[in-house]
Amino acid sequence: MCHQSVGLIARALEASGITTVTLTSAWSITQSANPPRALFSDFPLGNTAGPPNAPDVQIAIARAALDLAVSASEPGIIVPTEHQWPEPWKDEARELIDHRTPREATPQYERMSDMAAAIEKHGEELACPVC
Questions:
Q1: What pLDDT sits at residue 101?
Q2: Number of CB atoms found within 10 A of residue 31's CB
Q3: C-beta of residue 60 within 8 angstroms of C-beta of residue 41
Q4: Could you tell me if 89 and 44 are in contact, meaning their C-beta atoms sit under 8 angstroms apart?
Q5: Residue 24 class from Cβ within 10 Å (0-12 exposed, 13-18 middle, 19+ buried)?
Q6: Confidence category of residue 3, pLDDT binned at 50, 70, 90
Q7: What is the pLDDT of residues 71-107, one digit of tens each?
Q8: Distance of alpha carbon 79 from alpha carbon 113, whole angstroms
Q9: CA 115, chain centre distance (Å)
Q10: Chain centroid to CA 108
């Protein structure tokens, strides 16, 4: 599931009274989805909970996520972990190898019919309490 969808689902669950923490390795995407609280690991995509065969790191990240569920004092907080990927995965210029693109602050639609459906449901302002 993509980072943005997870953030939107977390906001819907929080609106129902369920505490959530999302794990992410894509800060800008997570920030645009504005989840209630997120734990960021600067790891390659697909490895948000830690490297393969590194249960000590994976357990530490799970514990940090549980601690964040209890300790987060403000909504929309993204907290970085202290863990480092065991080998270089970024190029010399610190640009991401997977060439992620910046995220837009405004909704983006694949089809005009998607935009029309959103406007019909939420109005021109798109002031949806979840998305």
A1: 63
A2: 18
A3: no
A4: yes
A5: buried
A6: low
A7: 988 888 999 999 999 888 776 545 555 555 666 767 7
A8: 36
A9: 23
A10: 17
